[in-house]
Amino acid sequence: MSGPSADGGRDPGLQPERTRLSWRRTTLSAAVAALLAVRTVARGGASTAGVV
Q1: DSSP code of 13?
Q2: Which pTM does this prediction carry?
């Protein structure tokens, strides 16, 4: 059978992969933002409270 299956043709293995990739992007974005904040504070551009 080459038609869609009873579950709408979705591959159940793709959802965990998409979730894992989205968490990876979120973690990377948070890490970059934290590094930029630390760099700004280290260069004296803003106070710690101002960055937070």
Answers
A1: T
A2: 0.62
